[in-house]
Design a protein that fits this description.
The complex is a heterodimer. Chain A has one domain. Helices cover 77% and strands 0% of the residues of chain A. Chain A has 19 helices and no strands. Chain A is globular. Chain B is globular, with a radius of gyration of 22 Å. Chain B has one domain. By secondary structure, chain B is mainly α. Chains A and B meet through helix 16 and helix 17 of A and helix 5 and helix 6 of B. Chain A: NDH-1 is composed of 14 different subunits. Subunits NuoA, H, J, K, L, M, N constitute the membrane sector of the complex.
């Protein structure tokens, strides 16, 4: 709870710092503030069991762990941002403030206890992101990304809002607990409610970029500045799924036989489309964009295996995916900045010149591909085992086939770096990047070997 | 506690080797380190009680609480032989690569030692999840070894190899998860797996899920297509690791994780698996006749020999299994020897084509004698190690079905033909310009070939101590599975 207040105040403070031209202080203050917010979040672990603020929010363990992971990932992304915004614009403070505002929205998204708060959280996050996607004002693709993201986002918010309204019409409440009570007690099935659930799912699937509502993702991810893409594909995605799981688990679980088949279809479609299209990409960034669709498919498994431990599975998966993606995007930013190119061929020979970068990126790719001894494997393992015990055997077999397809494109990076020796210039890796790479790689391996200590948090 | 040391000692060596970077001295370090592992397994062997079928030196630690996954490992008779094979071959493999100057040797030897840890984990794991982790941990290093230091076509070939194996493993992972979700106590422990009673149809699915992974690894026909390419393109140490140790993971898996886990599935589908194994023997032998590439020839001969071992496993009787156990060891030694001989030839002649060789026996007699001993071991001449293994395997097959043993027995004749032809082409006949100045083996080459020849003859003459190690475990495993097939069949 205090984390939300801290982050909101921090964003305003950053705006003031920008006003007084204290450019050098921006990043340190932001990082310091976020660390503070992280500590405040961790302290609140297990302290609120009941909803607060007139039942608007509930800072339970679920909210705490997802706030924790989103704040931590934001810190990692922001460390990469040193000297990044300066190259784009003179008004750096705005960008830090916008990221912080969207993070505030995210904290609301993972801790809401009322559908109106879900809407407010999503909007606070999205509006900041629309601007962030377009921060390269003179860049055509950045403009395109921002416009596309805005149009699609507004569209999906419409669905979400409409669904919420129908649910309110059917149940007479926005409050999660009351809706659930209504669903448990009432036996009659109302078409109003079912349409509401469908529209809500559609709206949320837009937000998390699951197929067939994924069309905006590749273009927006590619057009946005890489740092913003990193933020979108890690923090925002995690938050979207947390919000999704929260409402489905706490609210609509009694009606699961109605909506789970839908999610199964969406998950299968996301896996297929994401993986198959990713295989055909020639550029690293676009590959990551498509692969993020397939990861959305895997994360939807958490909803399909709906029970208390699916929160666990989603948390571990999201954490694994986030840290691995941070490494991938860090490498992408370095590569784009120094060679101006991000095709797979531009990775050739990195292993010899930058062994450390190559090693960490390899760990990230192995983790994203779900190879054992990395966090990504543990995440997939948990997802698969939960879903298998919910008797969706065919879906899991399908997912396994997709995991094999995933190897094709993730291993292209490894193959380029290690197996294709080529003379090239060494990339300079700034200290901040080194810290982020080392931390993320270490976290990936530690989670892969001993997942117990974060899996038992919930 | 010893078991932890056994598994993680090579891993520590890998870390040290990877830090030592680019100096060629890392070879010696890796060699000494692998001798430490060998010493440790010799110590374990000396205190091992072969009369008990139970796993010994067990270690059990709750690793991943809420899923019922434990770090559970131990060594019984079957594991003991595999541990000996792994820890015995790795020093030889490292020693045999002394003459190569691999680029970035620190990484090379670190990967070999890393793989050793993975292999030992596979052979000692008593928990399904742990077994899977070891299974993949052995795969990653060999992928990099073949990818970085392999031949020209390494990238394409290596990707195929990786995709094949990972697909098999992931399907096996599903089988493991499925079994674990049906165990009485919800754990991944192998003892709990053995207690699960599923209906025959489901067991059939489980059988195929596991079989796929093991069949790709061995490889059994028709899942073998990755193998000849990969063996050919891999650096010699990689081929040795793949053929000498890694394919035994598949056979070992079939013995411990496939048949006892899904006995009714095995009762139903075992004959199909047997048929595939025997088909592989004949098929690979026929292709081997045609090979002129020495590495490819060894690759195909390996498919044939492994097919026989697999057949011995799938008939599931004590003779066949005992034959499989000792033959795994023998095949490891022999195929290592063959690849080393091939490596010496390729390094000196700079070609893999046997047509360009000939008459080497005249210029390098010691080498020719060593090659001959290895060859005779491979084609199972009495008093060499191959004989006792193939004899037991064929006995096992004979007890199961006469025709199975007859067709599988062809492997000996076929093997003799293509192997002797290879010998004739390379060693006998007239010398040519290329072979005239063939250098006689020296130093480490002599040492390695000497050890291999010694092993071939010693095991061939006196195999009993080795058979004794696995006997009790094999017997109790066969009884257990037979009992379960009887027991469950009556309930359904």
């Amino acid at each position: 709870m205090n984390a939300l207040i801290t982050i909101s105040l921090l964003a305003i403070l950053i705006l003031y710092l920008g006003l007084f031209k204290a450019k050098r202080a921006l990043l340190p203050v932001t990082l310091l503030g976020l660390t503070g917010a992280f500590v405040l979040t961790v302290i609140e672990w297990n302290s609120y069991a009941q909803p607060i603020f007139n039942n608007m929010m509930q800072f339970d363990r679920f909210a705490v762990v997802f706030s924790g992971i989103t704040i931590l990932t934001t810190v990692l992304v922001l460390i990469l941002s040193k000297d990044y915004f300066e190259r784009i614009s003179a008004n750096v403070a705005e960008y830090y403030a916008l990221i912080l505002f969207s993070l505030a929205g995210i904290i609301i998204m993972v801790s809401y206890h009322n559908l109106s708060m879900l809407f407010i959280g999503i909007e606070i996050m999205s509006v900041s992101l629309y601007i962030l996607a377009g921060i390269k004002k003179r860049d055509f693709s950045s403009n395109e990304a921002a416009l596309k993201y805005f149009l699609m986002g507004a569209f999906s918010t419409g669905f979400l809002l409409f669904g919420t309204a129908l649910i309110y019409g059917a149940t007479g409440s926005f409050d999660l607990a009351e809706i659930r009570e209504y669903l448990v007690s009432s036996t009659k099935s109302s078409p109003l409610l079912y349409s509401g659930i469908i529209l809500l799912i559609v709206g949320l699937c837009f937000k998390v970029g699951a197929a067939p509502f994924h069309f905006w993702t590749p273009d927006v991810y590619e057009g946005s500045p890489s740092l913003i893409t990193a933020y979108m594909s890690t923090v925002v995605k995690t938050a979207g799924f947390a919000a999704f799981l929260r409402i489905m688990l706490y609210c609509f679980a009694p009606k699961q036989e109605f909506w789970i088949p839908m999610i199964v279809a969406i998950a299968a479609l996301s896996l297929l489309i994401g993986n198959v299209t990713a295989v055909y990409q020639q550029h690293f960034k676009r590959m990551l964009a498509y692969s993020s669709i397939s990861h959305a498919g895997y994360m939807l498994f958490g909803l399909i295996a709906l029970n208390a431990s699916s929160v666990n599975a989603l948390f571990v998966y999201a954490a694994a995916y986030s840290v691995a993606s941070v490494i991938a995007f860090a490498a992408l930013i370095l590569l784009q900045r120094q060679t101006g190119n991000d095709s797979f061929d531009s990775f050739n020979g990195i292993a010899r010149k930058n062994p450390f970068l190559a090693f960490t990126l390899t760990i990230a790719m192995l983790s994203l591909a779900g190879i054992p001894l990395t966090a990504g494997f543990v995440g997939k393992f948990m997802m698969f085992s939960r879903t298998l015990s919910a008797y969706h055997t065919i879906l899991v077999v399908f997912a396994v086939i997709n995991a094999v397809i995933g190897i094709f494109y993730y291993f292209r990076v490894i193959i380029s770096m290690y197996f294709k020796p080529e003379e090239r210039a060494e990339l300079t890796v700034p200290t901040g990047f080194k810290i982020v790479l080392a931390f993320s790689a270490l976290a990936t391996v530690v989670l892969g070997i001993y997942p117990e200590f974060i899996a038992s948090l919930i | 506690m010893e078991i932890l040391l056994l598994i993680f000692l090579p891993l520590v060596g890998a870390v040290i080797a990877s830090l030592s970077g680019k100096s060629q001295g890392v070879k010696t370090l890796a060699f000494i380190w692998s001798l430490l592992s060998l010493g440790l397994s010799a110590y374990l062997l000396s205190v091992f009680n072969p009369n008990s079928p139970e796993p010994q030196f067990t270690y059990d630690y709750p690793w991943f609480l809420y899923s019922g996954i434990r770090f559970q490992a131990g060594i019984d008779g079957i594991s003991m032989l595999m541990v000996l094979l792994t820890n015995g071959l790795i020093p030889l493999i490292i020693l045999s690569s002394f003459k190569h100057h691999y680029r970035n040797p620190g990484a090379f030897y670190a990967l070999i030692l890393f793989m050793q840890s993975g292999l030992l984990l596979v052979f000692t794991a008593l928990d399904g999840f742990l077994f899977y982790i070891g299974w993949e941990a052995a795969l990653i290093p060999i992928y990099f070894i073949c990818g970085i230091w392999g031949g020209e076509n390494r990238i394409r070939v290596n990707l195929k190899f990786f995709i094949y194996t990972i697909f098999g493993s992931l399907i096996m992972l599903l089988g493991i998860i499925y079994m674990a979700s049906h165990t009485p106590d919800g754990t991944f422990s192998i003892q709990s797996f053995y207690k699960v009673t599923l209906d025959p149809a489901t067991q059939g699915w489980v059988f195929w899920a596991f079989f796929l992974a093991f069949a790709v690894k061995m490889p059994v026909f028709p899942f073998h297509t990755w193998q000849p390419d990969t063996y050919t393109e891999a650096p010699t140490a990689g081929s040795m690791l793949l053929a000498g140790v890694m394919l035994k993971m598949g056979i070992y898996g079939a013995i411990r994780w496939l048949i006892p886990v899904a006995p009714l599935g095995f009762a139903e589908w075992g004959p199909v698996a047997l048929l595939l194994s025997i088909t592989g023997i004949v098929y690979a032998s026929i292709i081997a006749f045609k090979q002129k590439d020495i590495k490819r020839l060894i690759a195909y001969s390996s498919i044939a020999h492994v097919g026989l071992i697999a057949a011995g496993v799938f008939v599931w009787n004590v003779k066949g299994l005992q034959g499989a156990m000792i033959q795994m060891l023998n095949h490891g030694v022999n195929v290592f020897g063959l690849f080393f001989v091939a490596d010496i030839l390729i390094r000196r002649m700079e070609t893999r084509d046997t047509d360009k060789m000939g008459g080497i026996a005249a210029v390098a007699p010691t080498f020719a004698v060593a090659f001959l001993v290895i060859l005779l071991g491979t084609i199972a001449l009495p008093l060499t190690n191959g004989f006792i293994g193939e004899f037991l395997l064929l006995m096992g097959l004979y007890n199961y079905n006469l025709w199975a043993s007859v067709i599988a027995g062809l492997t000996i004749i076929f093997g003799a033909v293509y192997m002797l032809r290879m010998y004739q082409r390379t060693m006998l006949g007239n010398t040519n310009e290329g072979t005239l100045n063939f250098k006689e083996i020296d130093g480490t080459e002599k040492l390695v070939l000497g050890i291999v020849c010694l092993l071939i003859i010693v095991i061939g003459v006196y195999p009993n101590p080795i058979l004794h190690i696995s006997e009790a475990t094999v017997k109790s495993l066969v009884e257990m599975v037979d009992g379960r097939i009887q027991g469950i069949s009556t309930t359904f």
